[in-house]
Amino acid sequence: MARSKKSTSGAESAAALGAPPPAPRGELAIRTLAMPADANPSGDIFGGWVLAQMDVAGGITAGQLARGRVATVAITAMTFHLPVYVGDVLCVYAEVERVGRSSISIHLESWASRGRLSERVKVTEGEFVFVALDANGRSRPVQREELEV
Q1: Contact status, residue 107 vs residue 98, Cβ threshold 8 Å
Q2: How far apart are CA 123 and CA 50, in angstroms?
Q3: H helices of 4-144, where?
Q4: What is the share, in percent, of the chain residues with pLDDT greater than 90?
Q5: Is residue 54 part of a domain?
Q6: Which domain range does residue 75 map to?
Q7: pLDDT band at 18; cut points 50, 70, 90
Q8: In 3-state terms, what secondary structure has residue 44?
Q9: Quick check: 61 and 124 in contact, CB under 8 A?
Q10: SS3 assignment, position 78
Q11: pLDDT: is 60 or 11 the higher one?
């Protein structure tokens, strides 16, 4: 049974009003392809898989900023807007929100490119908090003079 993968997005409503389509916040951190092994029997990608991709993207961004090892300590907000389907290209964008003594808060958005038409829709967004770690796995300060925020 074929099912419609049509979605209503901010892009459609913006186009109807003559406004430019919405754009992702932040910098592209990762891009990956949603595969059948990542889907439930209905063909929707598991939310946990999307969450894991966001965690990886945030970890890469925080690790670069901290110049070393980081760990996720909290997800303070998470919203699932639309499903991700098998064959979608998932792009995760990261924007550093705050840098504390040892923590880094990052806003992450996931956008899916749908099929060959490359319709791009925001599917999830969240706020992730990472902490910089030393070689022994204990929190360490993020060196302010090294920050490029």
Answers
A1: no
A2: 9
A3: 10-16, 47-66
A4: 74
A5: yes
A6: 32-142
A7: low
A8: strand
A9: no
A10: strand
A11: 60
**Residue 70 is assigned to a structural domain of this protein:** yes
pLDDT classification of 148: cutoffs 50, 70, 90: low
Under 8 Å between Cβ of 93 and 108: yes
Higher pLDDT, 13 or 141: 141
Give the CATH number of the domain where residue 43 resides.
3.10.129.10
Q: In Å, what is the CA distance from 38 to each residue of 13, 47, 60, 140?
A: 30, 9, 22, 35
Q: 86 pairs with which residues across the strands? A: none
In order of 37, 59, 69, 72, 75, the CA distances from 62 in angstroms are 28, 5, 9, 9, 14
pTM metric for this prediction: 0.83
Domain count, the chain: 1
pLDDT bin (cut points 50, 70, 90) of residue 24 is very high
Q: What distance in Å separates the CA atoms of residue 134 and residue 130, rounded to the nearest whole number?
A: 13
Distances (CA, A) of 64 to 15, 115, 127: 36, 32, 18
* 74 neighbors 83 (Cβ within 8 angstroms): no
Residue 123 burial by Cβ neighbours in a 10 Å radius (0-12, 13-18, 19+):
buried
